[in-house]
Amino acid sequence: METTRNIETAGPARGIESISQLYLVMGRFFSYPDERLYGTLQDARIQEDMRALVEGLPFGVKFEGIPSPSVPQDELESEYINSFDITPSCPLYEFHYRSGELTRREILEELLSFYGHFDVKLSDTEKDYPDHLAAELEFMAFLAMKEADAGERGTDPDPYRRAQRDFLERHLGRWVDRLDGRIQKTTRERFYRGASFLLREFVKNHLLHLRGQGSAESIVPLDLGGDCAEREASP
User: Containing domain of residue 132, as a range?
Assistant: First the structure.
């Protein structure tokens, strides 16, 4: 599986790189199921690769495997569109799950503050919103990899660790459990139900792990959202 190429790294960096790789994998799982992705999901080796990533994490995550898609590619594409894309039952945008807490503008501005603080720019070709699930997962993968790189260079990894915790507390960790609730109730495809369950457990336990480390001080100064940090929703 292409996205697991770094899991053989030894020492503490291996665990952090497993975190980064798993965020990337989950982002790919919730991207449009093109022919390449469908082929990967049908490869029997994916279960072994996923288990290696989960076992490489520096914290425990319940993993019972993710079933391969139960339908041909064209039907999986239809399931993806119906569930996540056009008038979807399970939108993949943060705003739909937090509309009673912040306006969409506030959510997008906070996200852009996070991305801009680390000089991360959204793709000019895909033209998606900053609050799309894949964008948030890829940002977490970036922060985890920066943490691993800092540790290997002998520089302070704590700013990247705190940024991950802040991002989960303010954004990703506030809505993946709500997304999972919808997916489990409305999505027929077993692959998406299994992937959503793993994502929820992974995010929840990663946040608990981060809370046990480092300073309580936030790394990204945000003026939006008022007492957002105090209105914490457990993932």
Answer: 10-211
